Amino acid sequence: MNGIDMEGFSEEEQKKLFNMIEQQQVRDSLRMYNSVVERCFTDCVESFRRKSLDKQEESCVTRCTQKFLAHTQRVNMRFAELSQGAATPD
Fold it and tell me: What does the UniProt entry say about where the protein is found (predicted)?
């Protein structure tokens, strides 16, 4: 389970550990979301003349988020590859 040997833990300890892991994953997801919003907003929005984005700003935000998500996906795939490599005995 997640690469953690849970054999030495009681059921209550396992639940606490999984709850802590789940909370950390939520925090990491929110941190990533906030990071992409801040980055793309800073890079793409140039003025506050209107309530909505103009076409150029909207296009920039779309490209920015697509690049960020593609990069994140690639990093996750590479991390999974490295994790599998580390888990297999030589």
Answer: Mitochondrion inner membrane
- 53: which residues sit within 8 A by CB, 6+ positions away? 44, 45, 61
pTM higher than 0.70 for the full model? no
Instruction: Assess contact for 66 and 73: CB atoms under 8 A.
Output: no
DSSP states of 21-80: HHHHHHHHHHHHHHHHHHHHHHHH----SSSS--HHHHHHHHHHHHHHHHHHHHHHHHHH
Give the start-to-end residue ranges of the domains of the chain: 11-87
> Looking at the domain covering 11-87, what would its CATH class be?
mainly alpha
In angstroms, the CA 41 to CA 25 distance is 24
